[in-house]
Write a structure and sequence with these properties.
By secondary structure, this protein is of the alpha/beta class. Helices cover about 35% and strands about 25% of the residues. Helix 1 packs parallel to helix 2. The longest helix is centred in the last third of the chain and has 17 residues, at about 380-399. The structure holds cytidine-5'-triphosphate.
Length: about 400
């Protein structure tokens, strides 16, 4: 990345120590880095550390006498290919949202016309406070990209949303933006995964053997291609490694339906790999069912079909990919599902193929497009299958 210039803005929060890692990540990828820090930031990290890591002078004092004839905040604003504020406190967010420029960094932010990335970090109550949220919306309206924050343990001792996004992820988002790396850069992708559990009584449920692995592999592969991914998953022991994946946990088919509908409109690609229950108990017994009789009848009612509903609401430019798990008349059944649910592609798993489908690390699929084209994969690792599915998706969205 020689030739690319990053200005990292550091403000006064404990996460400032993480921006040192961010400087290193950009430097080791060949970027030129200059740092603008607030006075409060320098209570957490020192000028010496910043200058040693960035190999450039720190920009912290607006009124520093200079031998150069150019005005520092203007020249730095022009020099930068982008500005990344990490961590961004409620204070800098508020100042920038309202056009206040009273120190080196806030002045630079107003002076630059280059892309600005903001990684908020603060106490969860501060982050949730309506004024802060409003200021973040104002920054988004100005075109700033907000990265994070994450939820988790906070330095103040509480737990919630406010932890600065990890440096690795901030780096990836910015790097992808500058290089255009990733075929799905700028795209939003929603993926469903895993089984659903339909409760019978407080201790029992109807479920299935889906592990969720195929959906998790798809989520990681789409994130690696630069997409912003939302992974809506039923109960599973899996964890997702890629920080660009926003995970939403659900239990029942109805919860999965609700979560999908809430975000479907903004998605570019939706891949429904979850093994959603087709039926759910009409009533959930309020107490544990006792074995007082020799048999038990459960009355089940149909769940709402997420794929079919998304298909009926699909807007221009959206790509909808469904899965079909079949045990007989595979291609006919899958093709019927493709058309009746108005999907663009259906990924067919056949339980007849050894090593494919549920509970395995491998899969073997056939993809059928609505134009009738087919792509067949060999039996391979689900990560590799995920890349095959995304290859087909990328080819279609490029057309
Ligand atoms: N699906 C869904 N919502 C449901 C049921 C299924 O979104 N309530 C989705 C699955 O995630 C998958 C596709 O529909 O992408 C096909 O699921 P499958 O169970 O194979 O098909 P069904 O339509 O349920 O048909 P059948 O069970 O009769 O084969």
């Amino acid at each position: 990345m020689s030739g690319k210039h990053i200005v990292i803005g550091i403000t006064g929060g404990i996460a400032a120590y993480k921006s040192l890692f961010l400087i290193r990540l950009f430097k080791s990828s060949g970027y030129e880095v200059k740092v603008a820090a607030t006075r409060h930031a320098l209570e957490f990290v020192t000028q010496l550390t910043i200058e040693t890591l960035s190999q450039n002078r720190l920009y912290a004092d607006m009124f520093e006498p200079t031998l150069h004839r150019d005005v520092q905040h203007i020249s730095l604003a022009d020099w930068a290919d982008c500005v990344v504020v990490a961590p961004a406190t409620a204070n800098i967010i508020g100042k920038f949202a309202h056009g206040i420029a009273d120190d080196a960094l806030s002045t630079l932010l107003l002076a630059t016309r280059k892309p600005i990335f903001i990684a908020p970090a603060m106490n969860d109550k501060m982050f949730g406070e309506p004024t802060v949220q409003h200021n973040i919306e104002l920054l988004q309206q100005k075109g700033c990209r907000i990265i994070g924050p994450q939820s988790g343990f906070l330095a103040c001792g509480s737990t919630g949303a406010g932890r600065m996004e990890e440096p690795g992820q901030i780096f990836r988002v910015v790097h992808q933006h500058l290089t255009g790396a990733g075929r799905l850069a700028g795209k939003r992708v929603m993926i469903t995964a895993g089984p659903t559990y339909e409760p019978i009584d407080p201790v029992r449920f109807i479920g299935n053997h889906s592990s969720g692995l195929m959906g998790f592999c798809l989520a990681e592969a789409a994130a690696a291609e630069g997409a912003e991914v939302t992974l809506i998953t039923g109960p599973t022991h899996l964890s997702c490694q890629h920080p660009a994946v926003c995970r939403v946990d659900v239990t029942t088919a109805e919860q999965m339906f609700q979560e999908c509908m809430a975000i479907a409109e903004q998605q570019d690609i939706m891949i429904l790999s979850a093994a959603v229950a087709d039926f759910t108990p009409a009533q959930v017994a309020p107490e544990k069912i006792k074995k007082v009789s020799d048999s038990l009848d459960l009355h089940l009612v149909k769940t709402r079909d997420i794929l079919a509903t998304l298909g009926s609401r699909k807007r221009e430019g959206q790509l909808l990919i469904g899965f079909a798990l079949e045990t007989e008349h595979e291609i006919e059944n899958a093709t019927r599902k493709l058309h009746t649910k108005n999907a663009d592609v259906i990924v067919l798993n056949s339980l007849r193929d050894k090593g494919a489908g549920f509970g395995t690390a491998t899969n073997k699929v056939m993809m059928i497009t609505k134009e009738g084209k087919t792509f067949e994969s060999e039996l391979k690792d689900k990560h590799a299958i995920a890349n095959d599915i995304l290859d087909v998706a990328c080819t279609i969205i490029k057309q």
